[in-house]
């Protein structure tokens, strides 16, 4: 794993080459970031196909506005910001038409309930529980706990204070825990059969 | 530290985000509290499950699709910059269209509208002279005098005044005639009992007679009215 500073340097070299018209460098940038973005955006909007479209659109925007990139900042922050703004727009668009689509919500809730009762497929239950989180908590949670970005970078991406990021992440974790608690306790009792502190095991 | 507070720190504690005194306090509390220990186990399990979630990946042909789209974008940029012919300057400059339309309207107003510069009275002599239709080539305009003089039409006030004067003249004439008739009637006892003037048509002869006695004062009043 490259250090943060090295990664930043590599990104800056690549984007400089893209500014000079080097498409190989652009391809490298796409290869470096496509899966990271996909991982975040899929969790944000819960749709594989739409997430891929958003990721593609993100790279298009990067290409179109390549000359306006400010080398004082991290390239990763810039590209995540673009991607999450596009995802936000998509969610807003959906919310606008949610009124006409009452069956969608019913289907989602039913799916979560079924997943909670099944003994296996814990991952799916977590994904569904995550999908029900409010947008601002979900975004902070995904960037921190799924993508494992530092709090400072999340604050820059979301353009909010550091303390707000921490509180949102903590709130999202608590909400998720509440949703999944019965399932996790059951799973824990079956697998461990003990109540010793996990940190001491 | 109380259970509620410990539980709010549990997620951060299990991810190693707590440090110093707070971390120590949470650790000590968990060692003594079975409920919080159970909660800690849930959090550990949840963190582990989240860590095991599959990484989402784009489709295999993502890069080729993206580069195709970029190529289209570049082609569009290049064509716009280099190969597309420039538009005609007037129609290309959309900002000039309102000015152009305004100029056309002004021109149309001048040509077909209110101000008649060509046939204004000052220029009439150039064309009534019987000479050529190109005044700038004919130097007679310098000495020629206009044959058609512009006569100002009477205003409505003047017409009204004139009409008023005509009416007064007729009224005075009528008065003179009546006075004459009255005088003749008083001298020769001529008449049918009723006056012939329109004003006295409904006045009986006896009253008319009384009026005749005061003819002098009526006449005076009418003259002063004139």
How would you characterize this protein structure?
- The complex is a heterodimer of chains A (201) and B (226).
- The model of chain A has no long low-confidence stretch (mean pLDDT 82).
- The longest helix of chain A has 30 residues, at 162-191.
- Chain A has helices at residues 4-19, 23-45, 48-64, 75-98, 102-117, 122-131, 135-146, 151-158, 162-191.
- With 201 residues, chain A is mainly α.
- Chain A starts with a helix and ends in a 10-residue tail after the last helix.
- Chain B folds into 3 domains: 3-51, no CATH class; 103-151, no CATH class; 156-225, no CATH class.
- Chain B is built from 10 helices and no strands.
- Chain B is 63% helix and 0% strand.
- Chain B has helices spanning 3-14, 20-32, 34-51, 62-83, 89-92, 97-112, 124-128, 156-188, 205-213, 215-225.
- Mean pLDDT of chain B is 71; it is low at 124-132 and 200-226.
- With 226 residues, chain B is an all-alpha fold.
- The interface between A and B is large, with 44 and 37 residues.
Number of strands of chain B: 0
Integer average pLDDT of chain B: 71
| Inertia-based shape of chain A | globular
N-end to C-end Cα span of chain B:
120 Å
CATH level 1 name of the largest domain in chain A: Mainly Alpha
Tell me the series of helices and strands of chain A, N- to C-terminal.
HHHHHHHHH
Largest sheet of chain A: none
CATH homologous superfamily heading of the largest domain in chain A: RNA polymerase sigma factor, region 2, helix turn helix motif
Radius of gyration of chain A: 19 Å
CATH architecture identity of the largest domain in chain A: Orthogonal Bundle
> Roughly how many Å apart are the termini of chain A?
29 Å
Count of spatially separate domains of chain B:
3
Low-pLDDT parts of chain A are none
Helix amount of chain A, in percent?
over 70%
Strand content of chain B: under 5%
Quote the beta fraction of chain A: under 5%
Order of helices and strands of chain B: HHHHHHHHHH
Helix count of chain B, per DSSP? Answer: 10
- What is the percent of helical residues of chain B? 55-70%
The biggest sheet of chain B, with number of strands, parallel, antiparallel or mixed sense and barrel status, is: none
């Amino acid at each position: 794993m490259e250090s943060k500073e090295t990664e930043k340097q590599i990104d800056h070299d690549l984007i400089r080459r893209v500014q000079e018209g080097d498409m190989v460098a652009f391809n490298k940038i796409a290869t470096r970031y496509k899966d990271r973005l996909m991982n975040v955006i899929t969790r944000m909007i819960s749709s594989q196909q739409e997430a891929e479209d958003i990721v593609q659109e993100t790279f298009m925007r990067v290409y179109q506005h390549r000359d306006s990139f400010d080398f004082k900042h991290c390239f990763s922050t810039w590209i995540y910001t673009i991607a999450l703004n596009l995802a936000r727009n998509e969610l807003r668009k959906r919310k606008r038409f949610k009124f006409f689509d009452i069956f969608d919500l019913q289907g989602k809730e039913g799916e979560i309930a079924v997943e909670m009762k099944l003994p296996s497929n814990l991952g799916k239950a977590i994904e569904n529980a995550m999908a029900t989180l409010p947008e601002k908590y979900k975004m902070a949670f995904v960037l921190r706990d799924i993508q494992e970005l530092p709090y400072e970078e999340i604050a820059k991406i979301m353009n909010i204070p550091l303390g707000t990021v921490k509180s949102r992440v903590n709130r999202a974790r608590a909400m998720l825990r509440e949703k999944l608690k019965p399932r996790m306790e059951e799973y824990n009792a079956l697998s461990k059969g003990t109540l010793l502190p996990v940190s001491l095991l | 530290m109380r259970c509620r507070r410990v539980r709010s720190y549990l997620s951060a504690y299990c991810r190693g985000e707590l440090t110093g005194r707070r971390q120590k306090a949470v650790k000590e509390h968990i060692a003594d509290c079975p409920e919080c220990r159970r909660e800690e186990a849930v959090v550990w399990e949840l963190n582990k499950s989240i860590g095991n979630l599959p990484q989402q990946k784009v489709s295999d042909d993502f890069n080729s699709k993206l580069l195709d789209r970029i190529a289209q974008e570049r082609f569009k940029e290049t064509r716009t910059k280099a190969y597309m012919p420039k538009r005609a300057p007037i129609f290309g400059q959309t900002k000039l269209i309102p000015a152009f339309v305004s100029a056309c309207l002004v021109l149309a107003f001048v040509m077909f509208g209110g101000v008649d510069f060509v046939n204004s009275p000052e220029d009439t002599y150039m064309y009534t002279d019987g000479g050529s239709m190109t005044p700038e080539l004919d130097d007679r305009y310098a000495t020629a005098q206009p044959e058609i003089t512009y006569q100002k039409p009477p205003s409505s006030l003047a017409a009204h005044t004139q009409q008023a004067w005509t009416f007064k003249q007729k009224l005075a004439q009528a008065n003179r005639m009546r006075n004459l008739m009255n005088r003749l009637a008083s001298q020769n006892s001529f008449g049918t009992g009723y006056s012939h003037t329109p004003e006295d048509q409904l006045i009986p002869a006896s009253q008319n007679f009384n009026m005749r006695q005061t003819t002098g004062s009526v006449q005076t009043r009418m003259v002063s009215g004139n």
